Amino acid sequence: MTQQSYGIMAEFKSPEALMEAVRAAKRAGYTKLDAFSPFPLADLARELGVRTGMIPWIALVAGLVGAAIQYGSQYWMNAVDYPLNVGGRPLHSWPAYIPASLIVAILWAGAATLIGLLLILRLPRLHHPVFAFPGFERASEDRFFLCIMQDDPMFDSATVHAFFGALSPLAVQEVPACD
Asked: Among 100, 147, 156, 175, whose CB has the most other CB atoms within 10 angstroms?
């Protein structure tokens, strides 16, 4: 029985070499790519089509919902459930509700952003197939990696090996799939 492959990964020495490899892979028609870098590369995210545009909307909606719940609960408690007329002040004194509502909005937006990012990025991921690639630990230090995944419509092991070979990487190797 043959072992299923996750994809084929190449190791590069510089961010420029990685960016050129990503552009070449896109020009060659590969669509299922994953890149690993020790620091963020803005152009890389754009080239790979990573979309993070959903995060601000998640934060906005969660902040508005949190503020509305906080404001509504203050209104309910002070004006409906247990009204106390102290010193002739109105039961619905909205300026007093704003600071707490703002604080809760910020709290909910921050928590939703964290949870949204974890879900979108599928984190925490305790194991990933690329961890088996020899030298991959240097992805957090000084090396750059590009993986063409096996589920790419154009994936053919020999063709991908030849494609990476033409880019002069430091290493090219097949990444076995997780069990």
From this structure: 175
Of 143, 145, 115, 99, the C-alpha closest to 7 is 145
Chain segment 72-113, per-residue pLDDT in tens? 999 999 999 999 888 888 899 899 999 999 999 999 999 999
| Coil, strand or helix at 121 | coil
Q: In angstroms, rounded to a whole number, what is the distance separating the alpha carbons of residues 114 and 127?
A: 21
Per the prediction, the chain carries an average pLDDT of 92
What is the Rg, in whole angstroms, of the alpha carbon atoms belonging to the chain? 25
Through-space distance between the first and last CA atoms of the chain, rounded to whole angstroms: 13
Percent of the chain at pLDDT > 70 equals: 98
Topology (CATH) of 5-52+129-176:
Alpha-Beta Plaits (3.30.70)
pLDDT top residue among 160 and 52: 160
Burial class (CB in 10 A: 0-12, 13-18, 19+), 42: exposed
Q: How far apart are CA 153 and CA 139, in angstroms?
A: 27
Domain regions of the chain by residue span? 5-52+129-176, 54-120
C-alpha–C-alpha distance, residues 4 and 176, integer Å = 6
